[in-house]
Amino acid sequence: MVREGYNSISLDDESVEGLRELQEQNGFKTIPETIRWLLLNNMPFKIEMLMGLVDSERNPFNYLMLEIDATKSQMNKVLDLMDKTQTDLKNKKKITHHDFEMEIYNIFPKHRGDYHLAESIIGILCSSGNRWDLVKPYMIKNGMNASNMR
Length: 150
Prior knowledge:
The chain has about 150 residues and is mainly α. The chain has two domains: about 50 residues; about 90 residues, no CATH class. Helix content is about 60%, strand content about 5%. It has a two-stranded antiparallel ribbon. It is elongated, with a radius of gyration of 21 Å. The N and C termini lie far apart (about 50 Å). The N terminus is likely disordered.
């Protein structure tokens, strides 16, 4: 068992020995520090492998979220924003594509200024017959570039 503060994980003896070897080789002070290093150095590769498993045609939203390294919380915020936008449109509330883009930037700060992300999200999530059927036509009518929508 490896402990740090209140967190703990169970490892077999072979795994602990392997971690200790990595710890010595790389000059880490603790096993948890070694584990963090392993995770950070292997995550980009793991994400690439996962993206290969996701069919961008069958699951375009999941693919996009993997591509931009979104968290579960960010994905949920996007879906909440889509629900809010649909409701606002049903209630005849005036919104602009710029307002929507700013909300996307608030969810994904490292993509600030990438208006293609907002367009892609709308293009992917607003396919015909879904629960956000008002959003895409409204955004296009109000200046969002439809040619950039996936």
